[in-house]
Amino acid sequence: MTMPRPLPPLNALPSFEAAARHLSFSRAADELRVTHGAVSRAVRNLEDHLGVQLMIRATRSVRLTPIGASYAAEIRSALEHLASATSAAAGKSSGIVSVSTIDSFAARWLMPRMFRFRQIHGDIDVRVATSERLADFVTDGIDIAIRCGGGQYPGLTTELLMKEDHFPVCSPKLLKGRCPLRSPADLARHTLLHDVFTVDWAIWLHSGGIDNVDPHRGPRFLSSDHAIQAAIRGEGVVLGRSALVGDDLAAGRLVRPFDLSLPAGFAYYVVCPPRALQRPNVKAFRDWLIAEARSNKP
Predict the structure, then answer these.
(1) Which among 150, 201, 160, 175 has a CA at the least distance from the CA of 258?
(2) Which of 56, 97, 105, 265 is the most buried (most CB within 10 A)?
(3) Model pTM?
(4) Using one digit for the tens of pLDDT, what is the confidence trace for 32-49?
């Protein structure tokens, strides 16, 4: 005889998931088009049923307990599974994938390639959120992320996407003229462009034993994308990151004036909660990312 499944009160789950994602009963209520009190009661009923505290209430805010954070991730995955199954049964779109990454990687690598994903998976709606901070998979509603780091992300499924090197790049026009770039020492007569990445001109110049160039002069950009655009316009030389300048090198918009390269200590990784890959649309996007990086196509 099959035993009944020990399910929680199912009508409380959307309220809890939304409240956990927004860390706000009011915002969850707005999303679900119910009252603040209805969301609060649903979460309380769920806690009473489970016999554990999921959320800590303060005067003007709420936060998840460790058990609440873990449970919210599982509930969100279950609701996404249910939504995907419902869409498939109705012959509609298979769902949405929410992706988080940094602005420069989105602008210079991910977005120019997204048309190829849409050609293969036109029924999957990919939504890209850019931020320099690490996204929270529960509260930010993120399914999968592309992170630049050392690859240590406890509790998450992690897969190497690509490694990168650092080397100067510039417009082809800087190879000619009165002060052509022929050796690293020639950088002393050119404008250095800076971004806010951890590997800067001082590190690169020191690694090459180059001591006649002031590594601190030149304009600084808060975005690597903007610094690269300035280099394309011929405004100076930027310390390029291979993942971000590869397409521009292939297209001839940028050139490497010399071969000296510095391997990066960080790499790009695809990370997500382990259960996320059980959803076909998230797995399809992860698999496409890995294949796209391996193909090396601009």
Answers:
(1) 175
(2) 97
(3) 0.70
(4) 889 999 999 999 999 999
